[in-house]
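Notes on consecutive records. When two proteins share a document, each keeps its own sequence and its own token line. Never mix them. Below: protein one.
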Amino acid sequence: MIKLLKIEFKKIRTYRIFWILIGLYFVFLAAGLMMAEFMVNNMVDNMNKHSPIPFPHVAIYFFPWVWQNISFFATIRYVLIFPAIVIIILITNEYSFKTIRQNMINGMSKAEFLLSKLLLILVISVILTFLLGLVTFIIGISHTSGITLQLILQKSSFIVGFFITILCFQVLALFFAFMLRNTGLSIALFTLYVFIVEPIVFYFLKSPIVHKNGISPYLPVNSILRVTEYPAIPVLKQVMGLTLQDSVSMSICLYPLIYAILFIATVYIVLLTRDL
């Protein structure tokens, strides 16, 4: 495994596009986290203009709720798209530049080739989770008074939820890349599915013209994003009647993990049966 990771890191070490996209991910993530509280309170101000009972401003950066709030804003699809595109480019470049054939000639099996990409996804997910956890901890410490260890750890399961979300989202990107093999087509169809196709299907399945069902939340992208579904903002519960999460449960993580396993199994079968 170490050998496979060394091969992957050798490929990306001087690959400028990889570092640019990862940099953009951090820029958009940082901007979103800094603007989150302002945007939420701006929404509250707009609601107060039409409400006889004013809603108070909210603070989202204090323990224990900071884990949930930052994990939520870090897993919106507009932010997750950047590491996903990185994975698509890295995989489709193997086909475009014929390096996958060279790897096979050098003795790497198809299973090892797939494993190398999965290990890269795992490492990226672990690093991003560690960095987000560190940032969240620092933000929480600086905004919370009367800190105790119990208070800090109370909602920390949401950082595990972030890990599951970013891991499975990248596996979905891997699936598109291996199925389509073309960089532009893979990015276009992946983006189209994430931002347009599945949301349309989601709301169609919830519409009155369809027989009542509970399928929508279990669509691939929605099952991934549901791991951290809402921020811990009381006004959402008061105004919209939403049931806010208390923690990240294994049951809610199970569906995206099942999808990830199915995507990996499908890619493996296709790799074995399709010509390079």
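Protein two starts on the next line and is unrelated to protein one.
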Amino acid sequence: MKSLSLTLLALFMIAANVVSAQDSRTQVLNATQVAKLDLTGKWSGKRNQYSWDKKSFIESFQYEFDLKQEGDIVTGTSTIISSNGDYADMKLEGVIVGNKFHFREYEVVNAIRPTGKLWCFKSGELNIVKDGDNIKLSGSTSSFMEGYNYPCSGGETDITKVDNSNNNLAVVMAGTAADTKVEASMNITTYPNPFIENANINYNLTGDSKVKMEVFDISGKLVANLFEGNQKAGVYNYTFSGKNYSSQSGMYIIKMTVNGDVYSHQIVQMR
């Protein structure tokens, strides 16, 4: 029995080391590392569609991006392909804020539409991730009906850069402590989202901080300055009124800079 216990313990330790090694290969990049990357090029992977209750996936699609980055602004096209060959090519636009890629699809270029269905435009904020020797765009992303920004069921996007020749990962991952520090987390919540006229923005500061809160549209244009100054630790709430501003896309990005660290959150206005 003792021999069996030692054997099981050894197997457990080996398995734990394997998991640890796998986990160490995957890393969400911070803003300093992302600034050294170029998202230009082709990306390929999967788009898994949620059920309406978001408790499961009901379909998996082949999903591809062809991007061009200039500064923080990204343009390009996406292609989504179902298992039976239905597809849509769409124009997309986006902007890098901190360590996230915010994007939206906005025009169908070519498509074979499923019978009785529409292709929903995908949008949202994607983490930029180093996975071994690859760079990935990954995260939960929303989807909206063409023209109205009414929500579809949404899903999960996970795509890998096909060609990393213009990204030197050794340079991206090396550097000073500021280059390699893990991005701190900050919970920015909004309600309702999507919104019609007003969106409530909530966040919690764990310590006294220098804060700047701005709102951009999806093209990277500054829309509003909501706050800039020093704040004590605590919970804060602000209201963003969409009726006071205009965005053709209806997509806005809340950018918060807290003690020099950048956080972002995307909100959508229904039209």
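For the record: Confidence is low (pLDDT under 50) at residues 1-16, 18-23.
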